[in-house]
Prior knowledge:
By secondary structure, the protein is an alpha/beta fold. It contains eleven helices and 13 strands.
Amino acid sequence: MALHRGSRKHGERHISVNPFFGDADPVSGMTEAPPTHRMPDAPLSPATAYQVVHDELMLDGNARLNLATFVTTWMEPQAGVLMAECLDKNMIDKDEYPRTAELERRCVAILADLWNAPDPSAVVGCSTTGSSEACMLAGLALKRRWSKRNADRYPGARPNLVMGVNVQVCWDKFCDFWEVEPRLVPMEGDRFHLDPRAAAGLCDENTIGVVGVLGSTFDGSYEPIAALCAELDALKERTGLDIPVHVDGASGAMVAPFLDEDLVWDFRLPRVASINTSGHKYGLVYPGVGWALWRDADALPEELVFRVNYLGGDMPTFALNFSRPGAQVAAQYYTFLRLGREGYRAVQRSTRNVATYLAGKIEALGDFRLLTRGDQLPVFAFTTAGHVTAYDVFDVSRRLREYGWLVPAYTFPPDREDLSVLRVVCRNGFSHDLADLFLADLERALPGLRRQQGPTGDREAATGFHH
C-alpha cells in the first residue's frame, strides 16, 4: 500500500455539505460541515455519510478506461452480490466459516490441476491478498529450504535470488525485507526479460532460487521458463548445484493454460517448485486475491506453517497477515464454476484478440513502433517511431489522459533506460468497441502532437507506470 502522511493542522479543511443530503427538512441537522482530517464530533446519518464519500469518489478516474492496471475492473452483478454477502466472513476463521475454507481448498485443487501438477493431491497451496504476498511467501520458502541445506554456513553466508531486472517490485521488496541479495539479469538490445543462460551464470552455492516471470509487466512477454529450467539442469550436471525455480505467473498463469496449452512452463517441469498468480488479474476477480502453490510438502518447509486454535479448531496457515475477508475467495470459486475451462478460454481469447487488433491498428498509424504485439499476455508496449521528433511517449500519455484514458509512459530499467514506452493492458471488459474509441481518440490527438516544436518534457502530467 502507498504510504500517506497525516495532514498539517493549519491545512485542515471542512467538507461543504448540501443541506438536501440531510433528513427531510433541509434546514435542520446540517448546521456544521464535517472535517476531513479528524474524526467529527457528532455522527452523520447513513445517507449523508454515503453521499459525502460518494461525491468525492466521483473525481476518481473511470476504472474501465484505465489501461495502466492489470487488475480486474469488471465482474458480473451476481459476483458483486456474492462478494457483498461474504464481506463479514473472516478468511482465517476456518472453523467458523468451514464452507468458505472449503471453497479455498477447491480453488487450490483447481489450480493444481490447471498447472499440471504430477500429483495434485500432494500440492500445498493457499490464497493470499494478491501476488505480492504470494511472491513473498514463495521467496520465504526458497530461503528457508536453502538455509536448512546450508545450516553449517548460514547465517554467515548471504543468500541471493536470481531474476530478471524486469520483475515486479514485490521481488525487490522481498530481497530488501528478508536480507537476500538480488542478482539481476539486465536487459540487452531487444531482449526485455531474463536470459536463461545469463541467469544460470549468476547462480552459486548461495542462490536460493531463480524467478521466471510468465508475463512481464513491462511489455507483456513470457519468459522462457522451460529454457531456464534446462540451463539449471545443465548447471546441476556440471557443478552439483540444484537450484529451484519459482514461476511468477501473476498474469500469465491464468492466460497460458487456456491459450498456450503447448507451452511448457508449469509443474510439468520438475525444477519448478512453486507458482503464484493473481486471481484479481486475469483470474477475473475484483482485488484483492492471489494464490501460491507449492509442488509438494517438501517445497514448503513445515516450520513456516503456523497453527492456531484460539478461533476454534486447528488452522494451519502460511500468510503475512491474519484477518481478511472471504469475499474474494468466494468470487474466485464463483468465476471458476461460472466459466469453466471453455469459458476462460473464450474470455482470454477475446481479450488477446482485442490486444493484437489494437496493436496492429496503432502500428498502422505510422507514428509508433511496437515492442510487443499482445500475442502472449493481452498486453503490448510501443514507442514513437524513429522519425518522430515533435513529441515523445510522455506527451502521448498526457494527451490521452485529457480524453479520460490512463495509459502509462515509462522508461525501461538498466541497461535500456534509453527506451521510453507506452503500455496498453487489455482486460476482460475492454471490448473491440472500446478499443475503437481509444484508437479514435489517439488519432484525434496526433495532429496536435505533430505540430509541437519538440517534446514538452512534462513527465509529471503523464500517467505513471502501474504493475
